[in-house]
């Protein structure tokens, strides 16, 4: 494969060739292009607007590229690295892993309705597809493959990558990066979660083979149960979002059980993953997926038809997919965020936030509530979130009262005076004016 002048154009060529089933070559030489490294740097550190804040970026990138050209680049081990060199060494490792991730993301594009860890694949997009395309299905085989990272077979993953990429130097570098990822601590030198997205992408590539085998298997099952004489053609829809998968089927119960057993055999014998969570549910019953629940319900539609003299109003029934939020999930969110017990409606102060400023505490509560509201905007029963909002409001007041060492009632009166119908908190105070912020 001839190298293009623009590396991003070359990545588009790789993506199109991979979608056609062709074997990809020359991935390692693509890592010599400095434009990819600059993109990887700003993906890792978006707050660094000026490269000078992180040192001489050009010199660092040229040094890494030179080591890759000569084949002398090695991922650092935390146990053998001095404390002063940890930051520089691990930044270089993250850069290499992120460039690998940029290339692999084009080679292993999502297959069909398999949604990986990319930012472009939102949960709402998947749920909307289910609402529009799953109306005619009867059964659903659903489950979760569990923790892929703990059960990931590295040899099987590298063999699968080498079948799609015929570049031994690039495959060897991926293998070294995979060993470094499993060796590194879950928290990096900055005290945050690991910044590179390579571990998640490798998990998704590992499950890409699962998608391929699933597609191959259900075609065999549908062909086995398709009887041309009875006028009934089985249908199947498959969706995987990260570790959760759904198989919607319009067929007999025997066919659905056969599909479930095939999924269990794949997870147990091919991937050594958990299979106890695989279950069969009728589409008219609630099916959990992505912290939602969806089911198929009948809905009446009224329309007018022309009669002899007057228009006649007729009603027709059809199935629609509706999304819900369960009470169990609301209880889990109240416990997860530390708002308190929603069943007895006992709010608790969040002691871990007491060392923050009052404006920061207010910002944390508002961010959490806005995130919850935006995520569950597709739910038909959004009013189930109201008790959670009231509990969060009481938890916020108790947290501020504990920080100020006053009572709950005093803080309610003090905040209610500033905002009519809501709670107001002074976030900044000058001689001329007061800035008052309100709780969501």
TrEMBL record:
Biological processes per GO annotation: homing of group II introns; mRNA processing
Name of the molecule in the record: Domain X domain-containing protein
PANTHER family reported in the protein's UniProt record: COX1/OXI3 INTRON 1 PROTEIN-RELATED (PTHR33642), COX1_OXI3 INTRON 1 PROTEIN-RELATED (PTHR33642:SF4)
Organism: Gracilibacillus dipsosauri
Domain X domain mapped to chain residues: 348-416
Pfam families found in the cross-reference section: Intron_maturas2
GO MF annotation list: RNA-directed DNA polymerase activity
Cellular component aspect of the GO annotation: cytoplasm
Stretches that traverse the bilayer: none
